[in-house]
Design a protein that fits this description.
The complex is a heterodimer of chains A (399) and B (547). Chain A has 399 residues and is an alpha+beta fold. Chain A has helices at residues 30-42, 60-71, 119-126, 152-163, 240-248, 258-265, 313-327, 343-365; strands at 12-15, 18-25, 49-54, 76-80, 84-86, 89-91, 95-102, 105-112, 138-145, 169-173, 185-187, 190-192, 196-203, 207-212, 216-228, 231-235, 238-239, 270-272, 280-282, 284-288, 293-296, 305-310, 336-342, 370-375, 378-381, 388-389, 393-398. In chain A, strands 15, 16, 17, 18, 19, 20, 21 and 22 form an 8-stranded antiparallel beta sheet that branches. In chain A, a hairpin with a 2-residue loop joins strand 11 (185-187) and strand 12 (190-192). In chain A, helix 1 packs parallel to helix 2, helix 3 (119-126) packs parallel to helix 4 (152-163) and helix 7 crosses helix 8 (343-365). The radius of gyration of chain A is 20 Å and the shape is globular. Chain A starts with 11 loop residues before the first strand and ends with a strand. Chain B is α+β, with helices and mostly antiparallel strands and 547 residues long. Chain B is elongated, with a radius of gyration of 44 Å. In chain B, the strands form 4 sheets. Chain B has a 6-stranded antiparallel beta sheet with strand order 8-7-6-11-10-9, sandwiched between helices. A 5-stranded antiparallel beta sheet of chain B has the order 2-1-5-4-3, sandwiched between helices. Classes of the chains: A alpha+beta (399), B alpha+beta (547). At the A-B interface, helix 4 of A face helix 1 and helix 2 of B.
Chain lengths: 399, 547
Amino acid sequence: MTSTQVGHNETEVAHSDRWVGVGRSSGQDAYAAGSAAAKEALAGRSASLLLVFASDHYDLEAVLAGINDSSGDAPLIGCSTAGEIATDGPEDTSIVVTAMGGHGFSVKTAAAHGASKDLRLSGTTVAQCFESSDEHPHQVLLLLTDGLAGDQAEIMRGIYEVTGASVPLVGGCAGDDLKMKATHQFHGREVMTDAVVASALSSKAPLGIGVRHGWRAVGEPMLVTKSEGNHVFSLDNRPALDVYLERLAPPPDVHHDPEAFTRFAMTHPLGLDRRSAEAQVRFIGEANFEERSLICIAEVPRSGMVWLMEGDAESVLEATDAACHDALLGIERPLGVVAFDCIARRGVLGDLGIKSEVDRIAMHANGAPVAGFYTYGEIARTKGVTGFHNQTLVVLAIG
Amino acid sequence: MTSGSWISHQVSEFLARVTSYPDGASALRGGIEHAAEALEAEVAAVVRDSSIVLSIGLIDMMQAETALLKAIESDEHLVTLEMLGRCHLAVADLEDGLGSRLVVARAGDDAFERDEQNLLDNMGRTLGLVLRMLRTLDGERAALRKLEERQLLLERLARIQGSISHRAPLQEVLDSITEGVHELMRDEFAVIRLIDPEDARFLLLASASTELPEALVKDIKRIGIHEGVAGRSIQEHRLCIFEDYPGSAGAIPELVSATDLRTAMAVPLYVDGAIVGSLVTGTKKVGRSYSEAEQEMLKALAESASIALTDAQTVESMREARRTKDAFLTMVSHELKTPLTVMLGALHTLHNRLAELPDSMKEDLLDSALRRGEDLQRLIDMLLLGARADLIGAREKIVLPAFIAEAVRRSEAVRAITISASPDVIFWGDAVALHQILGTLLENATTHSPEDSEIQVGADVTESEISVFIRNRGALPEDIDTEALFAPFERGPEANSSGMGLGLYVARALAGSMEGAIEVATGDDTVEFILTFPAKVESVKDLSSTG
C-alpha cells in the first residue's frame, strides 16, 4: 500500500483517492463552532462520512446545523461526550469533527430510537445498515449508544443476530460530562437521546481495532449472589453497596453523595472472571443508597465471580500503547485514528496524564490525525461474540 | 487460561442465566449465546438430526453450515468456515431428551483445552436439564391455560343460560352470545345471522360484536343466503372455516375492504332441527387457525344460541296461542250471547205480557226466539265439529251423483246451481262430514257472488281420490292471503251474510280429518273452492255386475 500525506498540519491525511480530516472548535457560538470544526475537517472536499463528538454544554441542534450546512448534509453520526479528543489533546467543551471521503470508502448510516424499551431490537435495527456483500474488503460497524439506557451487551447481541461474526464492531457510549442524566446521539441533523446510531464503514484498505484497559484485580474475589442485568443487589449474600464501601473505605461523602460516589467508582470498577487473561471490567455508574445496590453500565451475571479492580497511570498508559499497537498491526501508515477512551481512565490519569495519553496515541498515529471522546462504555468486537467493555480504551485505525 | 474453579463459576453463571428465561425457546437461545461468550467462540449452534436448528454467528452462510455439519458428523475438531476461516470445534451432548448437540466454533489457532470441553459438557447437561424442566412447565402452563379457557366458556355459557331462563329479551341474549364469542375466541368480529323470515333467500344480521364498524353493519345487514362463511355453513349444514377469507368463494367484498378480514369460522343455528341461521367469528390476524378446542367452543356457543332461539319461538308461539284463545273466547261469548239475549228477550216479553200482546206479535216473537235458538244450535254444532273433527268418522257407502244432488238440495239456495259433472261412482266416506263441508262451500259461494249469477258444482274422480269443486262468479282481492280465509272468525271482504267466520275453518278441519284438503283457485272472474279427499272409488256398473 502506498500512502501520501497531503493537506495542512496534522489534521488530514489522504491515501491516493481516500482521505481523513479532523477539525476542532471551542468557539462560544454553537452554530459557528460546528461550522468551523466541519470546515477544518473537510477542507473543501465532499465527505462520505462525518463523525461528530461534542460537549453537551452546546446547543447541539445548532452545532449539527452548522456542520451540516458546511458539509452539504453528508452522512453524519455522532454523540455528546465526557470530553473530546483531537490530535492537539483532550478538551472538555469543544466540538471535534472527523471527516472521511474519497472513492475507497463506502458508508451507510442508521438510527434506532427508544433503545431502552428493547435494547436487543435497537441492535438488530441499526445492524440493518450493514451489508456483507459490500464492494470493499475491509469493514467495521461504527456504533454510538446511550450508556444510560441499560445493559449494552443486549445491543451487541442484537447486532450479532444480524451480522454474525462477519464484521467487527467498534464505538462507544455517549457521555454528559459525568452528570449521568442524559446523553445524546446524532444522526444527520437529528439530536436524540435513548438511541443507538451506527455507520457501516467499508474501505479498500485495512481497518484495525485495538482494545485494552490496564486494570488489575485486587483482593479476594466475591460471588454475585443477586443481580438482574446491570443491577447488582448482593455480593457474598450481603448488600452489594455495603460490601463495596467496606472493602474500599472511601471518603465519607461517597457513602451518601451520588456525584461523589460516581467520581470515586470511576477508578474502582468491578472485574468479571473471564477466559481471557484480561478480566472484563464493569464501570459502576451509580449506587442506589436505599436499596444498597450498585448499578453498572453492562450486565454482571448472577453466580459469577467478581473482583475489585485497580489501576495506575503506568498501567493505563501501557494499555494505551498496547491498544494502539494492536490497532495498527498491518497498517503501515494510517489515514487517521479514532479513540474511544473510558472516562474512568481519565480519572486515573488526571488532567496531565490524559494529555500525555493523547500524545502517545498521536505518536502511534505517525502523523495521521487523531479524534475521539471520553466515553461511558466502549465497544470492540473483533473475536468471540461479546463486544462491550468498560474502563477500556478502544482504538480504530483507518488504514 | 482456565482452571477448575473457573469452570465451576462459569457453570454457576450459566445455570443462573438459563434458569432466568420464561420458556424453552428463549432459554435455548440464551444458553448458546452464553456458551459462546464464555468460551470466546464466534459460532454456537444446536444440531439435531443432521441439521442446525438454532445458531448464532452463522448468517446467510450456507457453506459454513454445510461445512460445520460435515465436520461434526465426521468427528473433526477443525473446520474452515466462510468469513471466519479456520476454526476449532467443540461438541457436547445437549441432554434435552431429543438427541440434540451443543456446538461451538472458535476462529484462529486457539484450540479448546480439556477444561473448556468439560465446561461445554457441563453446559450441555445443565441446559438440557433446564429445557426438560421448562418443557414440563410449558405443558403444565398449556394445561392450565386450557382449563382457564374451559372455565371462561362455562361461565359465559352459564350467564347466557341464565338470561334465557330469566326470559331476557331475545336480542339481549343474542348480543350476549356474540360478545361471548368475541371474548373467548379473541377475534375482532363475531356475528349472528338469521334467515330472513319474510324471504328465505336472504340472511339478516341479528347481532354483531361491538368492534364491527357501524357503517359496515348497515352495509352488510342483509346478504344472500349463500354469501359469506355463514351462508356456506347453512348450505353445507356444518361448521365451515374460510382460512383465506378474501380468496374464498362467497366472500363478502364489503367486509374484506372495510375490515381486512383474513380468516372466519361459522357454525349453523337450529330451531326444532331446522337451520335458522349461523354463528360467525372472524379475524384480521394473518395466519390464524382454529384449533379443535376453539371449534368445539364455537359449537357450544351456537348450541346456546339455538336454545335461545327455540325458547324465544316457543314463548312467542305460546303468546300467539293465548292471544288467539282470548280472541276466540271474546268472539264466541259475543256470538253466543247475542242470540241468547234475543231469545230471552222474546220469551220474557211473551211471559210477562202474554195476555195483552196481539197474536201476530206473539207469533213474531216466537219465530224470532226459534230462529235464534236454531242459530245458537248451529253455532254450537260447528264449534264442536271444528274442535272434534278427529272424532268424526262414521263411514258409509256413498253414490257420488246422488250425494252431490242431495247436497245441492239441502243448501236451499235461492240461486241457480248447475251440476256440471258427476261421475257415476260409489265410494266409502263420512257422509255427515261431507255434507257439512259441501253445505259450507255452497253457502260461501252464494254469499260471495252476484245475486243473479250461477254456481257450478262438479266432481273429478281417480282410482284413489275424489275432487269436488264449487265455482262461483267473483274475484278475490289481489293481496289476499287465501290461507287467512280458513282462519276462525275470518270473513271475506264481500261477505253479505251474518255468518261468524267459522264455516271455512270448520270445513277445512273436517276435510283434514278425512286426510283431505280444501284449496282456493281463481280464474277469469271466477273463484273456485276444491275439496279433495282420498277414497277407494268403484263404478256403479262394476258394482251392479258383481251383484
